[in-house]
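Suppose you are handed a protein chain with no further information: no name, no annotation, nothing but its sequence. What can you learn? This example shows the usual starting point.
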Amino acid sequence: MKPHDVIVVGAGPAGSAVATLLAERGIDVVCLDRATFPRPKPCAEYLSPEAGRVLARLGVLTALRREPHERLVGMRITSPDGTAFVGRFAGNHGHRGFSNYGLALPRELLDAHLVRAAERSGAVIYEGTAVEALERDPDGTVRVRIRSGNRRESLRARLVVGADGLNSRVASWLGTVRHGTRRCIALVTHMSAVEGMTDVGEMHVARGGYVGLAPIGSGITNVAVVADVNSLPCRGTPKLLFERLLGRFPAVAERLAGGRRLTPVRGAGPFARWTSRATGDGVMLVGDAADFYDPFTGEGIYAALHGAELAAARAEQGLVTGRLAARDLAAYDRDRRKAFGGKWVLERVIAAAVATPILFNHLARRLSARAALADLLVGVAGDIVEPSRVLRPGFLWQLVW
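A reasonable first move is to predict its three-dimensional structure. Written in C-alpha cells, the prediction is:
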C-alpha cells in the first residue's frame, strides 16, 4: 500500500492546525487522536491576542467568536504578600498586535472547531484511535500501528508529525525528551458564580505554586491550581489535592466559596519537559510534544498554533523536494529557536521568581508602581511584544532597583 504523505499524531490545536495547513495545499494527510471530539481538556483555556491571527488563517476565528467566550484585555497578578499589579495587552508600550484582547473559551469548543477545519481542508481524521507503536520501515517510511476499539492496523507515512501532547509517544520514540528539576502539576476545573471576575485573567502566587482564574463565557470561570510536585500536601485524588492546595490561597478560596464546581477536577503534568531537538528522520514534533515548561505566561495555545505554521512550511518543503532526513528537517528546529527562544528564557526567569517569594514580592511592588513596565511584561505574555524588550539589562534594572 502506498504510504500517506503525512500522519499527524494528535488532533489538538497543534495537530489540527498542521493537518489543515498541509491538507489545504493538496498534501495527503491523516490525523489521529485517541479522543472523540468534542472532549474536555485540562488547560487554562486562554488564547493570547496574537493567537487570533493564526485562528483567522485557519478559518475558525469568526465561528469561535460566535461561541460563548470572554475577551480578556490583560492580566492581574498577585504576589504572596498580597501586592497586585495589572498589565494590559494593548498598554503603554507602543506595540499593537493582531488584536487588543485574548479569547478565553472552553477547549471542547476550540478543539472541535479546529478538528472540523482540518477535515474541511481535506485531512482524514481518525477519532477514538490510539497509537500503539511506531517503527521505521526499510524504505525509510514510518509505520504507525494503531488501535480503534478491537481493531488494529498499520498506516505508513513519508513524514510523521508528533502533536500528541505532554506525554508524547512520538517524542519518546524519537528519544529526545528532557526533564527539568522543578516539575509542576496543574489541577483544573470549571466553576460558576466566582466573585469579582472582570475582563482580565488573574494569577495568584503563593509559596510552592499559583492559582489562575479566567472567565470563559456564560458566567463560568476556569480555575487552575499549579503546584510543585515536591510541595504537594498529600497524595490522593485530583479533587482532594485541589481542595488542599486551595488552602494556600485564602483570598481566592473565599471568592470560590459561593460558587459551584461544574466539572470534575482534572490533572495535567508534570511540566518542565522539553526536547533536545524536535526533528528526526521523517519525524517532526509540534506543540506540547516539542516542549512544555510552565503555563504561567499562558501562551501555550499560541505556541502550538504558530509552531504548526512553522512545521507545515518545512514539512511541505521536505515533501516537495523529497528531503525528509533529520539534517534536512533541522531547519524547523532553527525556526523554533528564532520564534520561541526569547520566550523560553522568560519562562525560566519567571518560574525562578515564582519559586522565590521574597523576589516575587519585590518584583510585584515595582510593577504595581510602574504601569508601563507591567504593560510591557504582559504584552510579552500576550505575544504582542518581543521578549527581548523585557530581557534587556535596562528593563531588568528597573524591575530590581
